[in-house]
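Protocol step 4 of 6: structure prediction from sequence.
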Amino acid sequence: MWILDLSNNQLKGQLPDCWTSVDWLGYLDLSNNQLSGRIPLSMGSLVELNVLVLRNNNLTGELASTLKNCSNLIMLDVAKNMLSGPISSWIGESMQQLIILNMRENHFSGNLPIQLCYLNHIQLLDLSNNMLSKGIPSCLKELTAMSKKGIHTRGTLNRMYLIYIPYIKIYDYFVEEEYPINISLIWKGVEQRFKNAELIKGIDLSSNKLTGEIPKEIGYLAGLVSLNLSRNNLSGKIPSEIGNLSSLESLDLSRNQISGGIPLPLSEIDNLGKLDLSHNFLSGRIPSGRHFETFDASSFEGNMYLCGEQLNKSCYGDGDQTTGKLSEAEAINDDEDSIFYEALYMSMGIGYFTGFWGLFGPMLLWRSWRNTYLRFLNRLTYESILGLNNSTEIKCIERERQALLNFKHGLIDGYGMLSTWRDDEKSRECCKWKGIQCDHQTVSLNLSRNYLSGEIPSEIGNLSSLESLDLSRNHISGRIPFSLSQIDFLCKLNLSHNYLSGRIPSGRHFETFDISSFEGNIGLCGGQLNRTCPRDGNQTAIKPEEHGTVNDDEESVFYEALYMSMGIGYFTGFWGLVGPILLSRSWRNAYLRFLNRLKNCIYE
């Protein structure tokens, strides 16, 4: 079997994985069905395959890597599916006989591999409507088939449009049958089908996320008939080499970020019948002459600084300027804009550098500043989360409920202050228990001034999402359990004014809590209280009042440095840019043009 054409049916389900048993298949067309799933690996065993068309199905996943074995392919069409992953480099390395490569309207991502430039015979390359990023390779001049004008020889056309069925025996006679290839492509903005027609040489990379400039090497593709790079993030200028594309009939560069003037050689392409340069940042006069004046305003709209008859907008100094060239004033404007942008980025960089290192430099050098910064973050995080919790109430989960009940059982509640903490059906909503706030999990536990006694149960560590704990002014005794220091999210802690004793646990962020979290516990000792514990050696102790003063001084210096760094960074960045604007008229003009472009970009 040489040809298998099941296109334009209503086939459903996945492609069968049995292609290793198919001999000598040269043409496979399963397009316009409802096939789903991945392309089977066994399809790579069809080494004689010339044409593979899977267009307009629901195929997913990446291209099967075994397809690189199909080195005789001249047409690969997987358009209008849901295929994903990168454009594989082996397409250019192993399929160098390809003439048509159509992968549009999928979910392919990543960059354009330079191996695509190995496709010397390619005449139609369509990768539009994907998620491709980065730049267009500059090796386009290696696409030699597109650099030649006109059509190929009859032998090549036979390869393209007429797949021969060699030596079919019909009524004892050996004959050759012909089978046409249908080509579907977007031509002048409309999808069209070509059958047994002269192949149109075209590149379509539209509707992706491509960046960078249009490579000047595009000018080597003299046989190119259609070029569509619209709806990307391309920048820079239109290369003047594009005027070498003498066969070009359709050019679409719309909805990018292309700047500069329209090159005069573009207006000298005689065959150009469709042109769209709209919605960019082009400037200067629209070239006139030949058929360029036949294009209407839609070809140039959305470029605030373009002028000319097509837009009914007069250019500066119309009476003295040569048609198709930028005026001297526009050239000066370009120079001013260049200097302005350099100064803008430099001022932003200097301001950022000064403000950033003015604050973080001392933090890298002094531990006291680092501790103050951590306390600042703890307070900020706590206040933000507390504000959110006040606006929403979410039920706690069963694991948290059991942990809270175990915590209660470890304490002595002589006055029944925790009477709402019950293990029954009516009290299952633990977020309504006294002293608890929830956000998916228990985040705040406030049991201060409740006459609780006993010891803090080690089960407190099971409340892994706890962010605030206040057990102050009770009669709790014993040691602080080590499990409490292992709660990563705990940013506010108050155990003051109890009867706790022993060493305050260290490690993780527990050392960031200051003396106010532990004061009023005469038996406690540790670095936070500057009170030595037995066997610690002779260490100089600082009174609690003195320790609090040190922390207050550190925070005072920290906040002064914070505000000073912000002020210096703002002053440097602001006046580094605004100063010259006030002094130089050309800079003011450049700044106004920048604001106009920014407004145009936002509102369009």
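Step 5 (inspection) to follow. Helices lie at 90-94, 154-161, 328-365, 367-391, 398-409, 544-583, 585-603.
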